[in-house]
Amino acid sequence: MADPKIWFVTNNTAAADAAADRLRARYGNCEAEDADLVVALGGDGLMLQTLHRVMGRNVPTYGMNFGSVGFLMNEFSEDKLEQRLAEAQRTHIYPLSMTVLDASGRTQSALAINEVSLFRSSYQAAKLQILVDDAVRLEELICDGALLATPAGSTAYNLSAHGPILPIEAELLALTPISPFRPRRWRGAILSNRATVKFITREADKRPVSAVADNVEFQNVREVTVAEDRTHRVTLLFDPGTSLEERVLSEQFRF
C-alpha cells in the first residue's frame, strides 16, 4: 500500500503522546474514519480499545509498546515505520458475541476480542449452570465465576485462571472456571469455535452475577449466551518473526 493514511492513537501518557507527536510530524496523520492503518502507542488495554473502535471497518492495527506487558504490541521505533507496516505479518481474530438477559428482562449484547467473563457480585459464590449447544454439561458450578476465551485471549485472563493456551489459528474456545469450589476438580473444557455456550445463574437474587465482554459490563444477569461472531473481524500487525502465533507458542514454554 503506497503512502497509507495512518491514524495515530495513544494511551494518553506523556511518553506516548510525545512519541505520537513526533510520528505525526514525520509520517502524517488522519482522522479515524479516513485511516488505512492504525498505529496504537500504549499497552494491551489500548490495543483492545482500538480494535473495538475499528472492528466494523477491519482496519489493520499496528501497536507499539508504551504499556506494561505489551503482548499485543511491537517494539517502539520512530524509524522506517512505513517499511515496518508494509512488511508486517497479519493475524485475523474473530470476536465472541455475548447476549445477556438481565433481572429486568432486558436483553443486551456486546463483542469480546479476548474473553467473556462472569463474576460474582457479592460476598457469596456464584452458582452457574452451563449448557453447550443447548445440552446441559454442568448442572451446577459453584465458583467466583467462569469465562470463555478466544485463542487470542487464552494467554490473558484465561491463563491467569489456569486455563489452557490455545494456538492462535485453532478453531477452539477455552471454557475456564474462576476459583471453582464445587466441583472442585473441574478445570474447564476446550470447545469447538462453532459451539454456543449458555450460562444460567441460579439463586440470582441472592447471588448476583455480572457479565463482562472485554471492557463492557452488565450487572444482575440471568442468562448469558456466547458464540463466535464470524461477521466481524479485526486484523493485528506484527513485525516479522514476532507474530502473535509465535508469541502464543512461546508462552507455552515459559515457566
Salient structural properties:
alpha+beta, elongated, six-stranded antiparallel sheet, 39% strand, 255 residues, single chain
Question: Summarize this, please?
Answer:
The protein has 255 residues and is of the alpha+beta class. The protein has five helices and 17 strands.
Describe the structure.
It is a single chain. The chain has 5 helices and 17 strands. It has helices at residues 14-27, 44-54, 81-87, 157-160, 244-251, and strands spanning 6-10, 37-42, 61-65, 89-93, 96-102, 107-112, 115-120, 126-132, 135-143, 145-149, 172-178, 189-192, 196-202, 209-213, 216-218, 221-228, 234-238. It has 255 residues and is an alpha+beta fold. It has a 6-stranded antiparallel sheet with strand order 6-5-16-13-8-9, with no helix packed on it. Strands 12-11-10-7-14-15 form a 6-stranded antiparallel sheet, with no helix packed on it. The radius of gyration is 20 Å and the shape is elongated. The termini are far apart.
Write the layout of secondary structure elements.
Elements: E1 6-10, H1 14-27, E2 37-42, H2 44-54, E3 61-65, H3 81-87, E4 89-93, E5 96-102, E6 107-112, E7 115-120, E8 126-132, E9 135-143, E10 145-149, H4 157-160, E11 172-178, E12 189-192, E13 196-202, E14 209-213, E15 216-218, E16 221-228, E17 234-238, H5 244-251
Parallel strand pairs: 1-2, 2-3, 3-17
Antiparallel strand pairs: 4-17, 5-6, 5-16, 7-10, 7-14, 8-9, 8-13, 10-11, 11-12, 13-16, 14-15
